[in-house]
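Appendix B, Record 12. Input sequence as logged:
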Amino acid sequence: LFCVYYFSHRLKTDDSWTINFDAMSLAARSNHALKPAKILLSYPKLSHLLTWWNQLMEGWLLLLPLIPVTPQVFRSIAIILFTGYHLEMRLFLDMGYLWIACIAMWTALIPPVWWDTLA
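Logged structural output:
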C-alpha cells in the first residue's frame, strides 16, 4: 500500500506538479477527463489546490497509518482522507477501476473499533 503512493509521488517531478501546481488543469484537458473536470479550467486556483492536495496525500499523509500513538485514530483519518481523495479523482478523471482498487486496499487497515461498532 505504501509503495503505490510513495512511488507515484516520486514520479511526479515535473514543474506542473512541484512548482506551477497546474497538473490537474493539464489533466482536465486530456482525453481521460470527465465533464466535471472542465470546471477546473474555469477555476485555476481550485486546480492548483487539488494538485497541491494530491502531492500532500501521496507524499506525506500516507504516513498517517504508521504513527504509533493512537493508531486507530490515525488509521481512521487516513482511510477517510484517502477514500475521499480517490472519490475526488474519480469525479474528474476516468481511470478505470483504479479508484475502486485503491479504496479496497485501504479496507485492510480498518481498525477493530469500526468492526466492533458494526457488530
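The chain has a mean pLDDT of 92.
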